[in-house]
Design a protein that fits this description.
The chain has 419 residues and is an alpha/beta fold. 50% of the residues lie in helices and 13% in strands. The strands form two sheets. A seven-stranded parallel beta sheet has the order 3-2-1-4-5-6-7, sandwiched between helices. A five-stranded parallel beta sheet has the order 9-8-10-11-12, sandwiched between helices. The radius of gyration is 21 Å and the shape is globular. About 3% of the residues have low confidence.
């Protein structure tokens, strides 16, 4: 049996994406113990080092055959939807034409052939958890949707697990995502505030949609400490899609440092992303200064990190202040309150959805408000004092989400095995 997994972190430089993928692999391997799992990645060696039990497929090979412009090149934008429509209606002819073009341009056609071979022999194609079906990541939308469309055109079951969908308003992306989601056998969402509404606008059958929570909750909940920690965890994400700039980051740093001094608490960096254009550690250092790296075990580049390492780091905290999503997930799943900083529509949907899943333990601060610094300071005080009391209910919420997630994955046996 063959299972192919698309995922949100092809470079393995975001431990949130990596955590969701690990849980997807764990659950699918438990349901289909004889299956061989293949995972998309930019660098096959990184897959072999981090996930020894799976087979790597290169994104470069996939993009030769099903990537944006694989047939029309720079004209693909002007002929929106033509390549995707051709891939679904005439998959064999489209793939042959794309392969011939790649071969003519002297690309590594072996990687493209392996993509086609694995997809054609797949019994199930899965998109693991992430927030990549969004206006913020058009490249990911193309790659994921075309992979799923290729499988669907050949009658192979497809499923999307742990999804955070939207905002999704750009017409070319909407036209691409809609048909793929309507043809999917199953979709699970990590929140219920935005995702279900987006799926309704795309005319997706609600009967195949389940809200389960984030898949990474399982990995973090399993690693929780016996007692709550004593430090304040900090995370910042400075990218176009986060909306946080240097001035806001420094204001966060000043506010958090002041609160930490009042509680005589240490600060613990909680980086999630190590991509060059969104490296959290660099943003944290801009906000808080050159912090003592001994608190991070010397891991500064992300090359030696794992979700488990970051989760253990979060476990030393009494609360976490964060501008990125999975720092909050890792905290809440361990019974640790999270204070989430919002400056973009993309993160507003993610954090308000997470707060809905974890209730009082997750507070959202809108940095567009003129009084956001005062709100952050008072919320830190409230979370510090109530952390012990909030812990049992947060762990109960995490446990419920894990159970729902496992139950939803188990449904895949019905459409894979034809029961």
């Amino acid at each position: 049996m063959q299972i192919v997994l698309e995922q949100g972190g092809h470079a393995f430089r975001n431990v949130g994406d990596w955590a969701m993928l690990e849980v997807a692999i764990r659950r699918l391997a438990g349901l289909f113990p004889d299956a061989q799992l293949s995972v998309f990645a930019d660098d096959p060696q990184r897959v072999r080092e981090r996930l020894a039990q799976v087979h790597p497929l290169t994104t470069a090979g996939r993009n030769m055959i099903a990537g944006k412009g694989c047939l029309l090149g720079r004209w693909a934008d002007r002929a929106a939807g033509v390549e995707s429509h051709a891939l679904h209606v005439l998959p064999g002819l489209t793939l042959s034409a794309a392969r011939a073009k790649a071969q003519w341009r002297r690309r590594n056609i072996h990687e493209a052939d392996e993509f086609v071979s694995r997809l054609r022999s797949a019994d199930l194609v899965v998109a693991s958890g992430g927030g990549y079906l969004s206006d913020a990541f058009p490249g990911m939308v193309y790659g994921v949707c075309r992979t799923l469309a290729f499988a669907q055109a050949r009658g192979i079951p497809t499923a999307l697990f742990g999804q955070g969908i939207g905002p999704l308003t750009r017409p070319p992306l909407v036209r691409m995502v809609g048909p793929v989601l309507r043809r999917a056998k199953q979709i699970t969402l990590r929140e219920r505030r935005r995702g279900p509404a987006v799926l309704r606008t795309l005319a997706v059958d609600e009967r195949k949609v389940t809200v389960t929570g984030d898949d990474a909750v399982e990995l973090s909940m399993d690693a929780r400490q016996e007692a709550i920690g004593t430090s304040i965890g900090v995370n910042l994400r400075m990218t176009g899609y986060s909306g946080v700039d240097n001035q806001l980051a420094q204001a966060v740093g000043a506010t958090v440092r002041k609160a930490a001094a009042e509680f005589d608490a240490s600060l613990t960096p909680v980086p999630i992303s190590f991509y060059r254009d969104g490296e959290d550690m660099r943003a944290i250092e801009r906000a808080f200064g050159d912090m003592d790296q001994t608190t991070w075990g010397g891991g500064q580049t992300g090359d030696d990190l794992s979700p488990q390492a970051v989760i253990r780091q979060v476990g030393t905290c009494r609360l976490v202040v964060t501008a990125s999503y999975h720092a909050a997930v890792f905290a809440l799943a361990q019974g640790i309150p999270a204070i989430c900083l919002v400056k973009s529509e993309y993160y507003a949907g993610k954090f308000h959805g997470l707060a809905d899943m974890f209730s009082d333990g997750c507070r959202v601060i809108d940095m567009a408000r003129p009084d956001w610094r005062d709100a952050l300071g008072s919320t830190i005080h409230d979370a510090w004092r109530s952390a012990e009391a909030l812990r049992p209910s947060l762990i109960d919420s995490a446990r419920d989400q894990v159970e729902r997630g496992r139950s939803a994955y188990a449904q895949s046996r019905c459409y894979v095995e034809g029961d």
